[in-house]
Site-specific DNA-methyltransferase (adenine-specific)
Amino acid sequence: MSKKQRAFLKWAGGKFKLIEALSEHLPEGKRLVEPFVGAGSVFLNTNYSSYLLCDINQDLINLYKIVQTEPERYIAAAKAMFVPEMNEKEAYYRVRAEFNLSSDPFLRSVYFLYMNRHGFNGLCRYNRKGGFNVPFGTYKKPYFPEKEIRFFSEKAQCAEFRCIGYEEAFDLTTDGDVVYCDPPYAPLSTTASFTTYVGAGFSLDDQALLARKSRHTAIERGFPVLISNHDIPLTRELYHGARFDTIQVQRNISQKGSGRKKVDELMALYDDRYHSEND
C-alpha cells in the first residue's frame, strides 16, 4: 500500500486511523461492496478491481457522483466558498438556510462540503423534516481538500455509487464480491443515544437485522461479509457465528481525554468458505 489517502470529508467514525489493521481483515475478491460508505476511507485505501459504494444519505451520494464525473467544475465552485468572508457565523447560517431550501444537486454538493468543513466537528446531522442542522464550528482557517477531491475522483472511475439501504446493497451482490459493513455503532450503554444520521437513525433492531442479513448472505450465497463495531458484549452476541478479531484503538492518555472512554473495534467476519474448510 502506497501513502495512506485521506477522505475529503470529515466524518464521525471514519476509518482512516484504523485502515492498516482493518485491511488485514478484508477478504480478497473482485469487487468491494460497502453498504455504509461514509467518507470512503476503506474505498480509498484498498485495491479491489471495482467498488459498489452505497449510503442512505442522498447528499453524500450526489456529491460523490458529481466529484466522479465533474471534478474540475466542482473544485472551482467549492473552492470559491473557502474564503475568509465565508468563515463567519452569519455566512454559514445563510448557506445552511439556502442548502435546506435548494433541491439542486450541484449546489447542495458545493454547500455540503462547505458545511462539512465549517460546521461543528464535521458533523452530518438532519432534523426530522430533513433540514441540515449542524451549528457553526468557529475554525481559524478551514482546509479546502483539493488534493483529496482529485484523488477521490480518479479512484471513483472504478466505482458505482448508489443511494440505497443496506438490504438493497446486499441484494446487488454477485460472484466475486466482498461486503464490508461499517454501520452506525452500537451504543456503549443502553442509555447512550444513537447518533442520528438520517431520519430515524439506526436502532438496536437495525443492528440485529444487519447481523442476520450478513450471516445469511455469507452462508446461503457464499460471500464473505466483514462488519466492524464497538467490541462490547452486545455486538459479540449479535454477530454470533462470525469469526472475531479485535483492533486495538489508540488511546490518547491525557488529562482532558481521560473522560473519553475508547473501546476496541470488533471485526466480525462471516465467511462460509472459511467454515467449510475448517469443519
About this structure: Residues 204-221 form the longest helix (18 residues).
